[in-house]
């Protein structure tokens, strides 16, 4: 563990290459059912009448084709309506989680992929030119904040300087991550295939065997002790999404999202556990602070306010 950052970078590379080389075959829990036998029979009959009509152009086959087409459309409509009613009947009002898992499929809209930028009434579609245009535009948008001479900025710089001097002279005790905390955080991660610059996704981390998690745990504790993490953890992979439904749009009508390495987000969640425990042990936050704290929400504040009003009366 003397060079844990270099080792962990190599380990992430190994996982990324493994997922691109190996193939996992799994059974799907859901599937799209095929059409019933009577609808398949009607469809084949319609195709037969269509084939005979194209050969002979006889009036009898034209009438049969028209009647069969209407019958197939009516039967398909009734079948789809029955499926939809059965699907709506499967919703359980008491199970809120299951309800929204099914309902959100019908409200999820996907952004169109960006295939070109419109620059000066001309379309740029080559990847290198598109990357250069996006780089120049968003470098200006994400430029460093210019320091101002307001009282708040001056006080913030002074406090930051004092905190850095204290941490250098009196280093804090490193956090110690145990195996149960790591397993609990990994289990809480969503099964997503999106990955950062390292190519490792949440799905890969969730299927790691216990001996690999032990290696990850040792590296995480070493990062916490040495206060040093892999350099690529601070690099985000940016993806542009179009604000419009068009695949060719101007650069100012795009919306970027940043994908950080999944292991860096895992380390942040482990740090957050110890950080919240330290805040609670030393009573850093007052009881009235409920935002971004677990088991604290608006309902807690309303109950507290009503209780204070009752005591005042």
Automatic annotation (TrEMBL):
<protein>
    <recommendedName>
        <fullName>Reverse transcriptase</fullName>
    </recommendedName>
</protein>
<dbReference type="InterPro" id="IPR043502">
    <property type="entry name" value="DNA/RNA_pol_sf"/>
</dbReference>
């Amino acid at each position: 563990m003397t060079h844990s950052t270099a080792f962990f970078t190599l380990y992430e590379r190994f996982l990324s290459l493994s997922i691109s080389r190996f193939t996992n075959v799994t059974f799907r829990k859901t599937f799209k059912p095929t059409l019933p036998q009577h609808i398949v029979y009607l469809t084949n009959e319609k195709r037969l009448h269509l084939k005979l009509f194209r050969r002979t152009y006889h009036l009898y086959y034209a009438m049969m084709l028209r009647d069969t087409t209407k019958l197939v459309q009516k039967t398909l409509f009734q079948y789809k309506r029955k499926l939809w009613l059965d699907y709506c009947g499967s919703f359980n009002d008491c199970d809120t989680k299951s309800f929204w898992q099914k309902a959100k499929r019908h409200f999820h809209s996907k952004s169109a992929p960006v295939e070109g930028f419109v620059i000066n009434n001309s379309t740029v579609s080559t990847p290198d030119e598109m990357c250069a245009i996006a780089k120049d535009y968003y470098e200006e948008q994400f430029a460093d904040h210019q320091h101002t001479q307001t009282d708040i900025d001056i006080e913030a710089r002074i406090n930051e300087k004092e905190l850095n001097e204290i941490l250098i002279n009196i280093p804090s005790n490193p956090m110690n991550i145990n195996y149960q905390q790591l397993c609990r955080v990994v289990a809480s991660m969503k099964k997503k295939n999106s990955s950062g610059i390292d190519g490792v996704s949440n799905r890969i981390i969730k299927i790691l065997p216990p001996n690999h998690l032990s290696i990850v745990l040792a590296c995480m504790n070493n990062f916490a002790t040495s206060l040093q993490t892999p350099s690529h953890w601070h690099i985000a992979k940016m993806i542009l999404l179009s604000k419009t439904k068009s695949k060719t749009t101007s650069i100012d009508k795009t919306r970027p999202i940043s994908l950080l390495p999944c292991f860096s987000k895992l380390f942040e969640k482990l740090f957050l556990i110890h950080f919240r425990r330290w805040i609670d042990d030393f009573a850093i936050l007052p009881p009235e602070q409920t935002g971004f704290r677990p088991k604290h929400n608006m309902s807690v504040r309303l109950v507290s306010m009503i209780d204070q009003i009752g005591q005042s009366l």
